[in-house]
Amino acid sequence: MCRWLAYTGSPVLLTQVLYTPVHSLIDQSLHSRLGAETTNGDGFGVGWYDAAPAPGVFRSIEPAWNDQNLRELAGHVSSHLFFAHIRAAIGSAVQQTNCHPFRHGRWLFMHNGFIDGFAAVKRDLVLAVDESLFPEIKGTADTEVLFYLALTFGLEEDPPEAVARAIGLVEACGRARGVQYPFQGTIATTEGENVWVFRYSSQGKSRSLFFTRDVRMLREQYPDREILREVSDDTRLVVSEPIGDLPGAWIEMPEASYGIVSRGGDQLLPFAPKSPSRAA
Amino acid sequence: MCRWLAYTGSPVLLTQVLYTPVHSLIDQSLHSRLGAETTNGDGFGVGWYDAAPAPGVFRSIEPAWNDQNLRELAGHVSSHLFFAHIRAAIGSAVQQTNCHPFRHGRWLFMHNGFIDGFAAVKRDLVLAVDESLFPEIKGTADTEVLFYLALTFGLEEDPPEAVARAIGLVEACGRARGVQYPFQGTIATTEGENVWVFRYSSQGKSRSLFFTRDVRMLREQYPDREILREVSDDTRLVVSEPIGDLPGAWIEMPEASYGIVSRGGDQLLPFAPKSPSRAA
Amino acid sequence: MCRWLAYTGSPVLLTQVLYTPVHSLIDQSLHSRLGAETTNGDGFGVGWYDAAPAPGVFRSIEPAWNDQNLRELAGHVSSHLFFAHIRAAIGSAVQQTNCHPFRHGRWLFMHNGFIDGFAAVKRDLVLAVDESLFPEIKGTADTEVLFYLALTFGLEEDPPEAVARAIGLVEACGRARGVQYPFQGTIATTEGENVWVFRYSSQGKSRSLFFTRDVRMLREQYPDREILREVSDDTRLVVSEPIGDLPGAWIEMPEASYGIVSRGGDQLLPFAPKSPSRAA
Amino acid sequence: MCRWLAYTGSPVLLTQVLYTPVHSLIDQSLHSRLGAETTNGDGFGVGWYDAAPAPGVFRSIEPAWNDQNLRELAGHVSSHLFFAHIRAAIGSAVQQTNCHPFRHGRWLFMHNGFIDGFAAVKRDLVLAVDESLFPEIKGTADTEVLFYLALTFGLEEDPPEAVARAIGLVEACGRARGVQYPFQGTIATTEGENVWVFRYSSQGKSRSLFFTRDVRMLREQYPDREILREVSDDTRLVVSEPIGDLPGAWIEMPEASYGIVSRGGDQLLPFAPKSPSRAA
User: Fold this and answer.
1) Contact with chain C for residue B139, Cβ under 8 A
2) A5, B257, B274, D198: least surrounded by Cβ within 10 Å?
3) Sequence-separated (6 or more) residues with CB below 8 Å from residue B259
4) How close, in Å, is residue B90 to chain D by CA atoms?
5) What ipTM describes this predicted complex?
6) What is the per-residue pLDDT across B220-255, written as a single tens digit (0 to 9) for each?
7) By CA distance, what is C95's nearest residue in D?
8) pTM for the whole thing?
9) Which residues of chain A make contact with C139, given a CB cutoff of 8 A?
10) Which pLDDT tens digit goes with each residue over C247-262?
């Protein structure tokens, strides 16, 4: 029940994407238009890639709109690929270890949505996490468990397969406990080069997800926009809710689909969870 | 640009007033209906009287809706007179020392509104604070300066006079600096026995302020409400925005007025600032 | 690697115990003399009983020595039985949900020490927690898991037995993973009437633990101390490290022992963990 | 009563200076050896220069030793000139706006020490701050007022003169109020190219201050140290307390002196405050 943003393309200062656009992600932390909650004030996180071996992650439990340190960081850190997430907590505690994006090695993972009936299924799900990964779970959020399930199922080798199996397990465990619609949400994950994004919910009514049109088309449409001339052709934003003020710049991802954003071209494909029996 | 509540009457657990009513003050921290901002997520404060020589004050920069410590405190502290305030910051930093209510000895003071052009007039106002009080200013909020001006002008002896002179000085200093409408807001102050509340703005369009009808009348109107049978006849709430679900329970304070809530009966009187020249 | 204090007896303002004594618990948060670490600045917690159905718990990640809200609370809340804990984190995150005391229903639980090799054994231990209790685990601290193990083993019926079985399981799981000395520490738990305290470590070199001599004896020894005349005969303090300046006021609990502090008289008994095989 | 560090030279990741050395600044936040207080747990700040027009500043009220965000930042931000400060508060509130370094335009300023009797002289000092600078004061720390006094007296044109006049005013105001030794401390300030450092106290017993020997000499002395081969000849550290484990690497700054660290060579000169009368 949150908002997120994934950026990949020419290196930019984070502030240009997070703060500059009209109705930016930071604005959305105070006044979201499409979200289930209008306020996303229960913490935030930013994860970014640079020359270091692992991505940096900055997380805070303060509302993003007022966090001075986020403002400083965003004005001084530039990156070719970063994730940002603002949180509206629905159950787990407001603490840094529950803020997205979550990190494992070079991987980042974030989510807008929830595992329904999480208290009832948490034990089952946690038991399915690989024993070697188990000690790395630092917080108590449903998304962190989902991330470690996906890692258990091979996220680092085949993200769509791993996410399909993780959500499949969530659905199987949830239904076994009587939860009608166990999963809801949009997900983004990356290893620092490619970005995988997913939109799916057990009910078929998923949280919104949008990506930007090809930059070359946007340049033709908005020849006066300086930012569009500055960024590379393969620059891409994926967001929970459109930011900025360029009508026609955004394409909504279809229900039950996933996308891969990479230098070699983007792909948009149908998505379906894999239930544990089918996966076995 | 905040919300506040003043309670006086039979001792109650804070939670009964802060959390229990439908559309309670804590709800208003997330979704205010009448306020200038819909989210009041920039900290909060509670001040309460008990047997101790000075009131207790609990303040935090977290959004009130998620603060577990406030929930604990409210479930264990009971008081016959308390103030609660939720903040939507408009300029000064989000830090505990800027959270209302402010305290001096046995006095508490809180405010919903602002001193317009505060950066421009702050120096003039601060210079007018009594030298012996000056070192007590702990934060950087406009309201804290207003409180120390009122103390300088005799708040402890004659609250309406002191507040009138403090706002009068704010208006004089503001206008000298070219500010059209220097003051806006509603104020509450108390020494632990009586509560003085003020509604005034230089523009004549003040933030809203409501107080409860006489409890005896409410009991007749709502004979089934248990809480109304429990509280004493002289119980009174003053709020920025009605809480609860009792139509007809609230009376709006008129523009440019002030009230005194005390055991000996309440008063409602017109309010006008006193300019420094008239005050001299 | 922390410090704690348990008070039971005449109702007192928390401040009289937490702040007033020379070398108080709050002083110890900055400068501990006997502890493994000299600074206990990674958060704190206070749990207290009053007329409410469950104890209040106030926890913060700020160093106790500087927390203004703790100072306020301690000056306004009085209780006949309360726990206070200051933390020196050794592994798990500094977050409120990892601060002691932990609460379940009317029970409080706190610990100075650690489960050695916790990352390696956490999964085994968590699996042993009763399924119905599992969703209540809110943080990631070793002590919280220990508490839920004790609850699983019947803490609410027989605290010494339950704690012996919980520590026995910790030792069995630890040794199975090659940990030489799996448990270290002192523990206090209460349901609001009796206080059970434990001192034990697998290595036989446990953290220190002291309790006060009988108040009647102290009164004879220190006839001029006003506080000793004020408190009831059955008032008792148990602490990690002596506070105050009364030589001879403190008795060290022996290695591998436990005590019960209750109105009907105190007991001091030997303590030994129960390994899972013996417990079965 | 704090600790600070100023680095200038080859661009390095902050972590190499803040965390890597044995007895690093972060260690000193827990266990200082030479400081007046052994724990510096009341917040911290880092200010760094990069290509952006103004330096970045990251400040937090958490103890530095446990701040995960500082760790992340230090592992991802590199700079040729940065300041770091850990705080042991002695009077003003623990809040971000009281954390060093303070910033104005391109300037940073930090201080280990205090203005004695600050409550008594604060009003006098604040009145001496230039009216145009007054609204920029965001916190309540003595050092921030000192910084704005130095700016008032021309810090941006002639730092030694401005600091001498600021401390001179502090001493004059303090003595007028009966304070025997009004100023104590070491100061660092920079505009991003040169670093000015000061060691002075009214009593002649100033807090310690050390700077590194010429890197070329250190390389001869420690030919095996890789870090010394990596950094440029003009790399320099100035610190409250030596860090690392290179005997002979540190020179103590004399009492009542100041230094300028710059590409064109360093200078070490005597320092004396200028009293207001002499300054006029």
Assistant:
1) no
2) B257
3) B196, B197, B211, B238, B253, B266, B267, B268, B269
4) 14
5) 0.89
6) 888 887 777 888 888 899 998 887 777 778 899 999
7) D66
8) 0.91
9) 93, 140
10) 788 899 999 999 999 8
